[in-house]
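Researcher: Re-running this chain for the archive, since the previous output was lost when a drive failed. Same request as before.
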Amino acid sequence: MKVSEALESRLSVRSFLADPVPVETIRAILETAKRAPSGGNLQPWQVYVVTGAKLTELKALIQSRLGVTPKGEGTEYHIYPPDLSEPYNSRRFRVGEQLYAAIDIPRDNKFGRLLQFARNFELFGAPAALFFAIDRQMQQGQWADLGMFMQSIMLLAREYGLDTCPQEAWAIWHKTLGEFLGIPDNLMLFAGMALGYREADHPLNHLRTERAALEEFTTFFGD
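Model: Regenerated structure tokens:
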């Protein structure tokens, strides 16, 4: 598969088949993804891979806590800036509306939207979860490195016929995940990622988010 094909076919899948992903495949993806660029070769990422019975246990644990604290434990960082300016605020609003419209959940159905949000913590049915953490001493440059590492994983997954959903939503359960996975105190949980095989017919997996025109974000100098 060409890189361009992987980029074009990658999307945040929100409904997976239950078919298991071989651990050997996950190992192969991570082994290649570690070549992602890293300033100063710091390689600031730590990955926790959860499958099988351990993943079932984690899902049950989160489910038991969702009823008490549906908004989780709070995050250690802002997933989005508190006061988004334009055009970013409109873009975020637009994709939310498209997502819920695809599964017929109107804006006034707050409970339905909350249930859909809670599906994040079922990994949308994916059989494998990857959780990413970064050393607390790292700064913006190293967070960018972590993002490039995650992107490399997502593109490599397409090469293996797999799909992903990067999920910053898991940051609201950083305390629970820290205890469950044994994440040391010097690391901060950044995000999770669902990994598995796409349910092709699910309407959410046909949602293609919009992208700005090249002229909106690029300035050319020279000939």
